[in-house]
Specification:
The chain starts with 33 loop residues before the first strand and ends in a 7-residue tail after the last helix. The chain is 16% helix and 24% strand. The chain has 3 helices and 6 strands, in the order E-H-E-E-E-E-E-H-H.
Length: 159
């Protein structure tokens, strides 16, 4: 035999909706990026297969260079704190204004200790470089990454 209850049964549909927390307006990005058009996508694909891609000369980390990246490329990105970190291009490419106000490609990059931080970077801003021997040497010379000898130096673990 069911026991009678003094509590009221409330129908969820009959309950008035609670007011939501105040919504904080999100800041709009300063650079509005858009999806690439068909001609832009075609130009990017041609640049990826051009023989000149092997001729890029990176003299300076600050120097902008329109280098074509593709999905899963390993890269180095400069974060807001001017720290260089390794990352991986996720494949989403956008077009938008760069620092010199020209239209350029922006690449979506996962970076950070666990590759869990995502952001768009533009080569024409000088903030994304391919992970090549030449770029790694520039990073070593400027002290952003350890040299090969420092990385393999295990003298503190051996006698």
């Amino acid at each position: 035999m069911p026991v009678a209850s003094t509590s009221k049964r409330v129908d969820r549909r009959a309950v008035a909706k609670r007011p939501r927390r105040a919504q904080i307006p999100r800041a709009r990005p300063s650079k509005m990026l858009r999806v690439t058009t068909e001609p832009e996508t075609h130009a990017l694909k041609e640049a990826l297969h051009a023989p000149s891609i092997l001729e890029y000369n990176f003299e300076n980390l600050e120097k902008p260079c329109e280098y074509p990246f593709k999905a899963r490329d390993l890269v180095w990105v400069r974060t807001k704190g001017d720290k260089w970190m390794s990352g991986k291009v996720s494949g989403r490419v956008r077009v938008g204004p760069t620092r010199n106000q020209e239209q350029g490609f922006w690449y979506h990059v996962n970076f950070g200790p666990k590759f869990n931080v995502r952001k768009y970077f533009a080569p024409m801003n000088g903030e994304i470089k391919p992970d090549t021997h030449e770029v790694r040497q520039l990073l070593r010379d400027e002290g952003w990454i350890a040299s090969d000898s420092e990385m393999s130096d295990d003298s503190e673990y051996t006698e």
